[in-house]
């Protein structure tokens, strides 16, 4: 049996051991926190919430978002996405922007001009990265393509319309009257049509324009061009793109050669496109988003960018359906030929 003194010594010994264990655990906790702060990779443990707003659904804009997400993943940014589609309606685009602002998302990816305009009008404190916007300055998104201050940056997909028309005229010199369809309420489309008029006039060609206000009007608009034009050129209009099958149906059924500027529309029935890879457009925008989320950069300190790396895509089967003899040299020099 232990004496009172011995029992006291044993109690003190156990207490000291417990105190040492407690101190050791506390030390390990502090050490872990310090290491986490010192290692940059661990600082990215936060999962960012990104709001995605697009005007309509079509392959080019979907490719844009895929490229955007891949760029962030490659940069090691952990993100979850809230996807919203305005279904071609500006009122919806406005409501989506208000939702993201109220939700206090970490960043907004605004795809195409109308949704980017709505986002920039509503959202003033959350970073906004736009993409697939033809003229961000004219659309009022930024004051210049340089670092423009505020909370906005992004990537423009301004098409080389003059080069496109020059190539298509070379491919089909017999076509003197060209038809086009566009949404007159979309600043992006209006800008592109202005460039198209200039490119056609420069070559002595006539441009027959048909305007629409929603995607359900595309088929009727395409039909209205029958007998009035020798060929059709579709510019960067998202509303027409969302109902592109209606255009190809009319062109195939009436032997009207169809040219576009969006390479994603060539497998869908256009003869040719000299354009950008929209996945690359989105990837470039995603790299800017990574600078904001990962490196803590102010969006206003990041210059807006321009899409680059033009590709020529050709669809010989579409040419055959639309009654056009396609010179072999274009097939041989194309970056991609649809089989």
Rg from alpha-carbon coordinates: 28 Å
Share of β-strand residues: 15-25%
Secondary structure class reads alpha/beta
Placed side by side, the strands forming the largest sheet appear as 7-6-8-9-10-12-13
Please give the largest β-sheet. Answer: 7 strands, mixed
The CATH superfamily label of the largest domain reads Response regulator
The domain count comes to 2
Keywords:
Rossmann fold, 339 residues, 12 helices, elongated, alpha/beta, six-stranded parallel β-sheet, single chain, seven-stranded mixed β-sheet, 44% helix
Can you characterise this structure?
The relative contact order is 0.13. The protein has 339 residues and is an alpha/beta fold. The longest helix is centred in the first third of the chain and has 35 residues, at 4-38. It is built from 12 helices and 13 strands.
């Amino acid at each position: 049996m232990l004496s009172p003194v011995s029992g006291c010594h044993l109690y003190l010994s156990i207490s000291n051991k417990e105190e040492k264990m407690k101190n050791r655990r506390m030390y390990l906790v502090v050490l872990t926190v310090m290491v986490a702060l010192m290692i940059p990779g661990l600082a990215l443990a936060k999962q960012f919430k990104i709001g995605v707003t697009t005007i309509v659904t079509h392959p080019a804009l979907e490719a844009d978002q895929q490229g955007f997400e891949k760029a962030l993943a490659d940069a090691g940014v952990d993100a979850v996405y809230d996807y919203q589609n305005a279904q071609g309606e500006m009122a919806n685009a406005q409501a989506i922007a208000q939702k993201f602002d109220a939700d206090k998302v970490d960043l907004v990816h605004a795809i195409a001009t109308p949704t980017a305009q709505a986002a920039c009008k509503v959202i003033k404190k959350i970073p906004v990265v736009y993409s697939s916007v033809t003229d961000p300055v004219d659309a009022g998104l930024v004051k210049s393509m340089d670092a423009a201050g505020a909370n906005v940056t992004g990537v423009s997909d301004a098409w080389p319309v003059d080069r496109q028309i020059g190539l298509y005229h070379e491919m089909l010199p017999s076509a003197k009257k060209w038809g086009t369809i566009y949404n007159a309420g979309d600043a992006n489309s209006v800008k592109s049509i202005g460039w198209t008029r200039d490119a056609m006039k420069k070559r002595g060609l006539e441009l027959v324009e048909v305007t629409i206000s929603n995607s359900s009007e595309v088929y009727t608009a395409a039909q209205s061009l029958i007998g009035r034009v020798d060929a059709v050129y579709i510019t960067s209009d998202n509303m027409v793109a969302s109902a592109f099958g209606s255009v190809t149906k009319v062109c195939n059924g009436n032997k009207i050669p169809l040219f576009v500027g969006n390479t994603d529309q060539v497998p869908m029935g256009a003869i040719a496109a000299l354009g950008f890879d929209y996945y690359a457009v989105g990837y470039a925008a995603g790299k800017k988003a990574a600078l904001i989320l990962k490196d803590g950069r102010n969006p206003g300190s990041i210059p807006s960018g321009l899409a680059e790396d033009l590709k020529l895509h050709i669809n010989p089967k579409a040419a055959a359906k639309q009654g056009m003899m396609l010179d072999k040299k274009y097939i041989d020099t194309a970056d991609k030929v649809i089989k």
